[in-house]
């Protein structure tokens, strides 16, 4: 198994224990076999509108257009909560300059993980790279640690030492900044990648 997987799928695998890891790999392989389809990307419209709003320095009321003409019942339920949370994070017209966030991939043992934060904002003068977290449940400390650590080891640029990484919990409008981990955490993720490949090759 040597396909590129999303950071979301890899985190889903790492946080599981026992046989649920097998199910996680099976789900990932099924998604890879069918390929990416924007029609089934539940949060695509939200991500794209948020990025466009920041690039144009528009007020957060621009996001209200996301609710216009919704026909998907699940989106009718989820999107209002996402908008409310995002507006809590980004006030009517905050003055946070945009920069294009870095993107890359983390590769170990034949498993390549896309590391693709959506936002680059100078929050209170600090260049901050943020991965959006959309789930209804609050992110666990373990999920946050994995995402932020992968961002740090993959996207760190020595020429921009003041840049920090974090996760934006969209529904609650809250930034969770990285907590720096030591090299042993990298070794842990390498072990998880090896396990993912072993399971993937066996099923």
Mind explaining what this structure looks like?
The protein has 203 residues and is of the alpha/beta class. It has one domain. The chain has 6 helices and 7 strands, in the order βααααββββαββα. It has helices at residues 7-14, 20-34, 44-56, 73-89, 141-155, 183-202; strands at residues 4-6, 104-108, 111-115, 119-123, 126-133, 164-169, 174-177. The strands form 2 sheets. It has a 4-stranded mixed sheet, with helices on both faces. A 3-stranded mixed sheet has the order 1-3-2. A hairpin with a 2-residue loop joins β4 and β5. α1 (7-14) packs antiparallel against α2. The chain is globular and about 50 Å long. The termini are close together. The mean pLDDT is 93.
Summarize the structure.
With 203 residues, the protein is α/β, with parallel strands linked by helices. The chain is built from six helices and seven strands; from the N terminus they run E-H-H-H-H-E-E-E-E-H-E-E-H.
């Amino acid at each position: 198994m040597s396909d590129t997987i999303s950071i979301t799928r890899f985190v889903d695998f790492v946080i599981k224990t026992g046989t649920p890891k097998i199910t996680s790999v099976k789900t990932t392989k099924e998604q890879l076999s069918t390929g990416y389809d924007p029609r089934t990307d539940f949060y695509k419209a939200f991500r794209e509108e948020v990025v466009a709003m920041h690039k144009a320095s528009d007020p957060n009321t621009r996001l209200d257009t996301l609710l216009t003409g919704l026909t998907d019942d699940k989106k009718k339920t989820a999107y209002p909560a996402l908008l409310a949370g995002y507006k809590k994070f980004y006030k009517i017209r905050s003055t946070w300059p945009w920069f294009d966030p870095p993107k890359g991939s983390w590769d170990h043992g034949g498993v390549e993980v896309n590391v693709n934060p959506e936002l680059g904002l100078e929050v209170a003068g600090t260049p901050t790279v943020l991965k959006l977290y959309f789930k209804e449940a609050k992110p666990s400390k373990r999920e946050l640690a994995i995402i932020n650590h992968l961002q740090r080891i993959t996207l760190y640029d020595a020429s921009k030492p003041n840049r920090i990484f974090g996760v934006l919990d969209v529904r609650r409008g809250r930034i969770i900044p990285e907590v720096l981990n030591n090299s042993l955490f990298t070794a842990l993720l390498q072990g998880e990648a090896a396990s993912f490949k072993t399971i993937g090759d066996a099923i």
